[in-house]
Fold each of these.
Amino acid sequence: MTQLVKINVTVNGVPYEREVEPRLLLSDFIRHDLKLTGTHVGCEHGLCGACTILFDGQSVRSCIMFAVMADGHKIETVESLGTPEHLHPLQEAFMEKHALQCGFCTPGFLMTIVDYLGDNKNPTDEEIREAIDGNYCRCTGYENIVEAVKLAAKKMAAHS
Amino acid sequence: MKPAPFEYYAPKTTEEALQNLTDLGYSGKVLAGGQSLIPAMNFRMARPSALVDLNNVAELAYIKLTDDGGIAIGTMTRDNAVEHDPIVKQRMPIVAETMGYIAHPQIRARGTFGGAIAHADPAAQLPALSLALNAKLLVKRKGAERWVTAEEFIVGPFMTVLEPEDMLAEVVLPPLAPRTAGSYKQVSRQRGGYAQAATISVVSLDDRNHVKDVRCVLFSVGETPILSKYAAKVLVGNEPTEAAIADVAAYAAKNECDPGSDLHGTTEYRRQLVEVLVRRALTEAVLRAKK
Amino acid sequence: MAERVFHKSILRNEDPQILAGKAQYLDDIELPGLLYAAFKRSDYAHARLKSIDVSEARALPGVIGVYTAEDFGDLVKPGPLQVPPPTAIKGATYSSRTLMPIAKDKVRYSGEPVAVVIAESRYIAEDACDYIYPDYEPLEAVIDLEKALQPGATLVHEDLPSNEAAHVVQERGNYAEAAKKADVIIKKKIYVDRVAAAALENRGIVINWDEKAQMMTIWCGTQSPITLRNATASRMGLFENQVRVITPFTGGGFGPKINTSMPDDVLLTELAVRLNRPIKWYEDRRENFLATTSERDQVHYAEIALTKEGKFLGFKDVFYHNSGAYDPYMMTVPLNTQTHTVSNYNIPNFYTEITMVFSNEMVVTPVRGAGRPQGVFVMERMIDAAARELKMDVAEIRRINLIQPDAYPVSTGIIGQDFVEGVLDSGDYPTALAKAMSMIDYKKFREEIQPKARAEGKHLGIGICTFTEGTGVGPYEGAKITVGGNGKVSVATGVATQGQAHYTTFAQIAAEQLGVEVKDVKVVTGDTGAFAWGAGTFASRGATVAGTAIHLAAVKVKDKALKLASKILETPESELELVGGYIQVADIPGKKISLGELASMANPMRGTFPPGAEPGLEAVAYYGPPYGATGAGCMAMILDVDAETMKPKIERLVMVHDCGIPINPMVVEGQVHGGIQMGIGNAFFEKVFYDETGQLLTASFMDYLFPQATDMPPKIEMGHTEIPSPLNPLGIKGVGEAGAIPTPAVFTQALEDALYDTGVEIMESNLSPSKVYSYVMKAKGA
Ligand SMILES: Cc1cc2nc3c(=O)[nH]c(=O)nc-3n(C[C@H](O)[C@H](O)[C@H](O)COP(=O)(O)OP(=O)(O)OC[C@H]3O[C@@H](n4cnc5c(N)ncnc54)[C@H](O)[C@@H]3O)c2cc1C
Ligand code: FES
Ligand code: FES
């Protein structure tokens, strides 16, 4: 018999109660059980960062966590940021600086960066590169992402 | 790349966890941060039949000062908690410095201090750090506990003295002597990646700036982290001159490590790295200790 | 006048949806009753498959079926060729051995499928793979290209006399004669190794067979949706209009997603019908490394003949190209190598010979660059060897040999991947070189910066290389443009999009003609239900070929609209203009009609319809170039190397580039940036590594090093020379692969220059610090 474990998770402010198999990866839980498909999966071994989410406010890889480990915790995914009509300042900055092409890596970057900019209001280029170093992008060469982060830092400072 | 099925236990206390481990014996395995274990399970290279998840055992995560001025770290303390801890930064900057080299922030938000040591990856920083700082490790099992030195703890690549029913519970970093400083040096193919060769060197100086103690640990260049005996032999009691340091570096590279050839580096290249890194690390540690 | 939207950096239409996490990618698709597939893959690179036991796997709860070759009957046969053989080239010989959908009797690469599992979840499907027991008899693996051709070598395909997959010789002028007249001849052996495309999204497919409607819908991030539809229909005995291929948002392509008639699409379409349930397969990263195509490995024996002044007289290149276990893509890659080796330099005599070799490795098909980086690497490395021999400056020797701007069109005498003789349509190579030199302060670097650094014991090196990029090749693409009753414009074309901003750039082309806002143009790419003719997204051709078709269709729609408006507004066409969604009479404000109204009037529901007229504001157009447009450029780079650890840091990188008139300069820069990142990866990080038994040692991102943000230069400094292509009305050339092409050559050159004091020479790409260290030790004689 397959063991099922009951978990309570708050995702983007919405509480969910679900029964899951212990081996279910958190990334699969978010994408397929909760249908929040903005979080992507590119490697399932913790390297590419496409699956990055906020877990209790910190950016983590959802592909190397089990859904059961999220019991009692809070998660934010890319869907928590903005809507197509009302983008978050970070998302606006990505658009204005052409920091995405295929966009597959983008949600992971956004979640890494919202976490980072929370603690670092005015990073240098080099610090930004180090902050996004754990997220892979095959399309952009990263340069426009660095530009977008700088712009976002400005926008977010103006907002707060 | 989906993990094979397993039974899941989520104890809330150390006691419960130890009970689970005892009950499960060889079929049980500790799940700490999961940052090594889960990728291995996704590749189905690891397929434990039962996991005892320590993430709900709140009492295993802490950083506190010991009576003698050392630092005790609960096994489930996240890497980034250690990295940013003010006590750690102030008392043992080499620890904070080392933490920054472990993977990326997203991994350090989940990976645990004890988990990395228990995992005993020859390329990992924390087993080497615990050796460089002469850490004491508290191992618990149901109804028993014992202290093990870092030197005894690791017995081979991914192998420790832990038995299936054991749990690493706490890591104690003894206080540093006055005028002690460390330096971390590594070469990895990419930032955040595992080192091709690395060293953590900790040096204590006396008032005349002669070496009182030195712990120069080489890692990712052999089956386990390696404490250079030659460094102590040559440097202790002496002035750490450029020549002496160069001698230690050359000797360590030639005789004290055993790096293999792999996709990313030949044995010769990695020995060259050891020599360069040991030289740079000892030089820097001495400089820092003098301050 | 309407504001121009062509040749302008306009923000992308597609971004808000992607940024909000609301874009649908392949694995986001869910259907009721969806089943999941997993492949049991061979652990051996070369083995006889004696039997396979799937009984335990079949018995697993949640498993719907486990299938081996035996269960697929006639389906188990070599698939169609993806591109035609090189028959246009005189004397070319070839053997086509195309992919098998599933291994039968023999496996030829590690990762080849031997069974397929269909289950209620991917988790269960993978469980079942663990309970499948193939019985193999291992055979010697064919890995070394040159050994593979020796008599008596183990054969990948035993029905062939040797492992030679193809052989092509092309020559212009007469190299042997030229060599006789040369002052200097330099010969080198040069290696280029294999890389993965490593799109961040893996491959995948979702198939739904609607039995009642007798319709198959396939979602797939393919670069070639129409090929996929046509191949599926003909294989399954369906009409083309019973199969619809839809490409959802796709997370990067870079080449391998062009392939169709792969095990997944062949077997899973069959099973979806058989089981009458939808099936999804989303490849995981390990499978991507094992069983998605990759490219680059070649071994070259090159010769350059020069005068003592450094003038090139001739070039000879005899090379071996690894085709992998099968050759469904025929010779596209090595032909590209031939056409890009000697391209932008005046070299009257050029002999080039390809031997394409079967091996027990994954199949080779184009990866961003597609044979071009190898050609450029070989040429540029040989030029550097010559400069060294003649003690000439590396920039100067290039300068004096470049084709001059008044020479176009230049026939190259070499037939390329499009089977026509190469023609350089336009360009200005000397200006690109001069511009790159000035941007990177070449003179100052040589005269001040480098000597000073060297005096301080620092190892700074500079590299500077030129290249061309054959782009926008045929055969053709088409487009349909329709103005809706809402006044908005829809554009449909057959090429598919993997992130290249087509939703914006194609919209710009249409909007420019029709006077609407770019955001009011909805572009549909890669949906055979919307447009079903075309070849696909490859060879940097989307913008050039499909873009031109869109332009032509937009012009037709505009003409149609003007004609109709002229009647309605009772004004001659010449006095009308399209602005802001209206056709108006210039100078008479208020005398206008909206495109939407016009579109409705063009589609009358009652009354009569004139003979010969076509309804709606709609038009279809096709475009096929006579030959490709050739982009070009010059890259320069400064490296700071730690001479103890051999770790390089890219201090500066300058790229001067010509892709004709850029539709959207912002997008062009983005494409170049991405290409450069891949080039840097190819130069120093990425390498697909097979051991001598054909085991893939780099089947994860732990071992396959993907360039990170900190591996890149602090800034990519871009310069442009915009030289319109005369081949199409918009003057555009492709750009998709540019960045990837020169980077390994420039990087290696800069590395040698930095390590000048060791005398090292490196005739190999896909380096590592350790490799460089070995070269240096060899140079030092240690
Ligand atoms: C992309 C990526 C990059 C990484 N790079 C690095 C790097 O550069 N350097 C580095 O050192 N590490 C690196 N890691 C690994 C990371 O540091 C892990 O966190 C660490 O190795 C294991 O810690 P964990 O808490 O995650 O343990 P887990 O993965 O949960 O467990 C690891 C092993 O230790 C055992 N274990 C854990 N805790 C205990 C305990 N208290 N008692 C008994 N047994 C226990 C487990 O049973 C398991 O066998 C990387 C990981 C990833 C995903
Ligand atoms: S999918 Fe999680 S890190 Fe790649
Ligand atoms: S935009 Fe395609 S991977 Fe980053």
Amino acid sequence: MVTIVKPENLVYSRPQAFTEFPTHYCPGCTHGVAHRLIAEVLDEMALTERTIGVAPVGCSVFAYNYFDCDFVEAAHGRAPAMATGIKRVLPERIVFTYQGDGDLASIGMAEIMHAAARGENITVVFINNAIYGMTGGQMAPTTLPGMKTTSSPLGRDVETQGFPIRMSEILANMDGAGYIVRRSLHDPKNIRMAKKAIRIAFETQVRGLGFSMVELLSTCPTNWGISPLESLTWVEEHMVPAYPLGDYKVAAGVAGIKA
Amino acid sequence: MPRELLKGNVAMAEAAIRAGLEAYFGYPITPQTEILEHFSKRLPELGRAFVQAESEVAAINMIYGAACTGARVMGSSSSPGVSLMMEGLSYIAGTEIPTVLINVMRGGPGLGNIAPSQGDYFQAVYGGGHGDYPRIVLAPSTVQEAIDLTVLSFDLAEKYRTVVILIADGSIGQMMEPAELPEMRPVNRVDWPWATNGAIGRERRILSSIYIDPNEEEITNLRLFERWKEIQKNEVRYKEYYCDDADFVVVGFGTAGRVALSSVRAARQQGIKVGLLRPVSLSPFPYQVLDELSKRVQAFLVVEMNMGQMLNDVLMATKGRVPVEFHGRPGGVVPFPDEILAEIQRVATTKLSVAPDPRHAWYDRMLAMTK
Ligand SMILES: Cc1ncc(C[n+]2csc(CCOP(=O)(O)OP(=O)(O)O)c2C)c(N)n1
Ligand code: SF4
Ligand SMILES: [Mg+2]
């Protein structure tokens, strides 16, 4: 990297854990923000070399292009199972999955529930954007009641299309879970809180305290059909009330961790 | 090692452990469950990984993850469970990582039953997961052979970075017979140049089955074929019995081949010059041996515990030179030696012609038999 500022004045640069691969995410999409937070945490904890990531099927299918660590690409929804296989033969490595709501809360529901139930010592970053981004904006299990998508064109009708699933609340009931929280990426304050949570989630794994997951309320301006800025407001006004932010499970050993 | 009385399922599991298996992920299903149970006891006591997964879908993806690290891993199931594993198997094949899978086949389709069957030949040899991918398929006919092929499977999977499927019918899994287990080999985790085991002091590695550019995916398919040609050249395995002077040859694999051997011996005692070809590698299939045999024998009799699946390969290999007759017992029924002997006698004494689909005449005989 060319240094154009004095080190003491440097406040922002590419995390070491990032490659220089140009982004494929849409303008204003918060997938990129979530990636950056993970990379910063890997840097701060000096974990990159020891880390193996598991990419999902969804818009973040190419997540492996961005992180300078080993990566595997799972089948749709199966990332927690794949991560289990890796962690069980390499318990000293740090293993994380990065999954969308369709991936984690629909097709991969069984895999995420049982990974948590087993207390699998892995970290999950869960991107809840209330939609199937990659396939062009179909209804997700997290789509809000009344929300229009390409497969709920009149708005999600809970009578026939069911209710949104709140994964953090569900997974917090698992005895094997060490750390389950929900954060949002809609403004700088919340982004900072999201980063702290990701840090604690990785700390949970490093200390062997069980399954950890950070759910991140995220935007999809492209498929929501509104501007990036409006998307951020939409998260605050519509998603946060439906998916309350907070700590759903902080196991005894995790509570003392400072981030 | 001394010979001991071993149940097929337990023998295959213990053989895998002695071949250096590091991890197993599975889900209970009859008639394969003793494999899972044996691992649940033995692997933890050896400090190796065992997980009873929430489903076969999860199990195969755990296998996928563990295999990506370069560890020796395997899975096992029986027919309905293997169907659930097919998505994962296709990803594994597309990622070009070694994996061993045992299918202790039962009667189907659907939930079927828990009796021995060979109904999954097509699934193992041709079908299964989506996309084009070669795979090695091996079929034991005794507990000893099940042990030996299990050990071999790991070496082949790693040598060719390929999927190896061992299809044993339910009787191989369930029966007990004297057999010898191999010596315990130490676990030898290889740092393969592709293994995603943590990028400590090296460039990062990515394992994936995505080739978003169709041209690259085409190259990948061609690369798999290149490996397949090597496999075809080196890994054809079969057993011939009394074929040297045979006028007729029975073709059968696994338990059907084993039962047919008794029938062939009985027919020989009656002066019928019949031999047996028992393919051990169903993929790659011993086409060449059959091609050669078809130039000097008068007819073949294919015996299977299904509706005639390997039959297609025999027809392809023998190119219509001589009649190929079929005798099948699908649905979980195991043929008796007398039954196959009667078929051998029929083939030896009847004037046969080459039929486009030998299943039709067989079906008529079956109807007559069950009336
Ligand atoms: C077995 C299977 N079914 C369906 C698909 C098609 N598919 C790809 S991504 C996706 C949805 C992804 O949505 P989500 O997990 O919410 O991720 P996002 O794109 O919103 O980040 C679907 C249905 C697939 N690849 N594999
Ligand atoms: S489709 Fe939506 S989730 Fe996917 S990259 Fe674009 S904005 Fe992000
Ligand atoms: Mg989504």
